[in-house]
């Protein structure tokens, strides 16, 4: 028990990941951002996970983004990304790429393996109106830079974003607002929970939050969450999770809602239709990523 925690977040609704494809035919399961809608500030969550190279080998050839951030968490596999700024990065098992598209990025995300398992997540995090046109930036975060621990009860965790107090210590993820206050103040935790374990995970009050299960089974508030399902949580300062089958693997993600209108056309996410039209014109005219670019 953690004395500082008072209000357990209820499980409000479950969204089952829906099979879809994107890029050049990569098979995905989309939960947030599919029929269940967005969860401000999160626009989309895709899980990719397969042992069949035909499902991922074509990758994501060059494509644009404007107005938000993409977070890629690679659980297994190897991808290379290249962007219009000349950046080349390698994303390996356990690593994260946190990319701020800002006013515009054109990049590719291509598998660097021809066999074996590839799995992970891509999360889209919105930017507030006054940051949508800031310069593009990205960080490659290797697994070795992501702090975590195994608790006495056998629950293992990693903190990718935000600050989390667990087991009497505070863990600061590599993405924690040190680049300047992040309007969405995201918290992103990856968990492995053996059957029979229980965890009370602090989540900042006021954040919107969800849990996504990618292996095993857990229970939250007396309801069972199955593989490939997202649980949207209600308000509170923590979530209580029980591992109920095998070793459950899940991510818990939260962020401060922006409360702004969202206008989205594919990979462009702005506040108004006029700004979308501008993004399309800029992309067509070669000005997406900067003046005269
Ligand atoms: Mn992309």
Descriptive tags:
293 residues; mainly beta; Jelly Rolls; 9-stranded antiparallel sheet; binds manganese (II) ion; 4% helix; single chain; 1 helix
DSSP summary, beta strand count: 24
Q: What letter string, H or E per element, gives the SSE order?
A: EEEEEEEEEEEEEEEEEEEEEEEEH
CA-based shape? globular
Structural class: mainly beta
Number of helices: 1
The third-level CATH topology is Jelly Rolls
Low-confidence regions? none
Largest sheet composition: 9 strands, antiparallel
Structure summarized in a few sentences:
By secondary structure, the chain is mainly beta. It has one helix at about 275-285, and strands at about 10-15, 20, 25-30, 40-50, 60-65, 70-75, 80-85, 90, 95-100, 105-110, 120-125, 135-140, 150, 155-160, 165, 170, 185-195, 200, 210-220, 225, 230-235, 240-255, 265, 270.
Task: Walk me through the structure.
By secondary structure, the protein is mainly β. The chain has one domain: Jelly Rolls (Sandwich), CATH 2.60.120. It has 1 helix and 24 strands. It has one helix at residues 273-284; strands at 11-16, 18-22, 26-30, 42-50, 60-65, 68-76, 78-83, 88-92, 96-100, 105-111, 118-126, 137-141, 148-150, 156-161, 163-166, 169-172, 187-194, 198-202, 208-220, 223-225, 229-233, 238-255, 263-265, 268-270. The strands form 5 sheets. Strands 1, 13, 14, 17, 18, 19, 20, 21 and 22 form a 9-stranded antiparallel sheet that branches. A 7-stranded antiparallel sheet has the order 2-3-4-11-6-9-12, with no helix packed on it. The chain has a 4-stranded antiparallel sheet with strand order 5-10-7-8, with no helix packed on it. The radius of gyration is 19 Å and the shape is globular. The mean pLDDT is 93. Bound molecules: manganese (II) ion.
């Amino acid at each position: 028990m953690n004395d500082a925690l008072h209000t357990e977040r209820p499980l409000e609704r479950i969204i089952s990941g829906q099979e879809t494809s994107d890029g050049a035919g990569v098979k995905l399961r989309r939960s947030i951002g599919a029929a269940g809608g967005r969860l401000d500030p999160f626009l989309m969550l895709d899980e990719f996970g397969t042992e069949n190279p035909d499902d991922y080998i074509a990758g994501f050839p060059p494509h644009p983004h404007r107005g938000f951030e993409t977070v890629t968490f690679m659980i297994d596999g190897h991808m290379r990304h290249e962007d219009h700024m000349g950046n080349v990065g390698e994303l390996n098992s356990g690593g994260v790429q946190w990319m701020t598209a800002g006013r515009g990025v054109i990049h590719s995300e291509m598998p660097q393996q021809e066999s074996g398992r590839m799995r992970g997540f891509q999360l889209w995090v919105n930017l507030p109106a006054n940051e949508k046109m800031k310069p593009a930036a990205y960080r490659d975060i290797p697994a070795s830079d992501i702090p975590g621990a195994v608790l006495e009860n056998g629950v293992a965790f990693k903190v990718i974003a935000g600050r989390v107090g667990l087991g009497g210590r505070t863990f600061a993820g590599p993405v924690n607002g040190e680049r300047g206050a992040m309007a969405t103040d995201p918290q992103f935790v990856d968990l492995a929970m053996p059957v029979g374990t229980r965890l009370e995970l602090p989540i900042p009050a006021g954040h919107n939050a969800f849990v996504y299960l990618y292996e095993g089974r857990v229970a939250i508030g007396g309801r069972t969450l199955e593989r490939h399902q997202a649980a949207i949580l209600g308000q509170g300062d923590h979530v209580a999770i029980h591992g109920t089958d095998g070793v459950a693997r899940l991510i818990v993600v939260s962020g401060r809602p922006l409360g702004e209108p969202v206008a989205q056309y594919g990979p462009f996410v702005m506040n108004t239709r006029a700004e979308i039209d501008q993004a399309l014109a800029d992309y067509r005219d070669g000005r997406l990523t900067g003046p005269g670019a």
